[in-house]
Each structure stands twice: as structure tokens, then as C-alpha cells.
Write a structure and sequence with these properties.
alpha+beta, 5 strands, 2 helices
Length: 111
């Protein structure tokens, strides 16, 4: 007799926890929208090198919003198709974020 009661209790417990789980998932989803609304400003950059094999752009850029000073450095790219569209000497505006310990261009506009 104890086994059916235990099964019933487990079933009821999982039904009660599903709405709580859904609410917490929805809360994190809403915060993603909040981050999108506060997108980083774009920084001017000059393409120095396109390295398709490494999936990197070397950019000369002004100061970045994260406090990085103006310099020339290599960035990963969010979209490898950008590497096909750019060449050394192109002027761009871009946003970059640190992803897995590396700076990655996450948004890009050609001037």
C-alpha cells in the first residue's frame, strides 16, 4: 500500500514543480531581452587583416566601451560570413564582447 501512495506523491510533486520551473525559465528569458535593448555602442575600426583560416579580423580601433584603449588587435567573429565580405583597408563600425576568454566581434557595419 505504501508504493501507490509514494507514486502518487511523486506525480503530484512533479506537477506542482513544473509551473515554478516554467516561471524561472521565463524570468531568465525576459532578462535576455533586456540585454538586447541595451546594446553596446559601435566603435570605429579599420580592417588591417582578414584571416579566414583562423576566423579572425585584425582591427585598428578606437577605445572600446569596456575600457580597452585604442589599439590594433585580432578579434574572433560571431559570423564567419563577415570574413568573406571584408578586406584590409575597409572602414567599419563594430561591437565586441569577451566570449570564452577571447574578444569577439558581435555586431558589424561597413562604413
Amino acid at each position: 500500500m505504501k508504493a501507490p501512495v509514494l507514486v502518487l506523491a511523486l506525480c503530484l510533486g512533479s506537477i506542482v514543480s513544473i509551473p515554478a520551473m516554467a516561471a524561472s525559465d521565463h524570468a531568465s528569458h525576459a532578462s535576455m531581452h533586456g540585454n538586447a535593448a541595451t546594446a553596446q555602442p559601435l566603435t570605429d575600426g579599420l580592417v588591417k587583416k582578414v584571416d579566414k583560416a583562423a576566423g579572425k579580423l585584425t582591427l585598428s580601433h578606437g577605445p572600446l566601451p569596456n575600457g580597452m584603449p585604442a589599439m590594433t588587435m585580432a578579434f574572433g567573429v560571431k559570423d564567419a560570413a563577415w570574413l568573406e565580405q571584408l578586406k584590409a583597408g575597409d572602414k567599419i563600425r563594430f561591437a565586441a564582447d569577451q566570449i570564452n576568454g577571447a574578444m569577439v566581434v558581435t555586431r558589424l557595419e561597413r562604413n
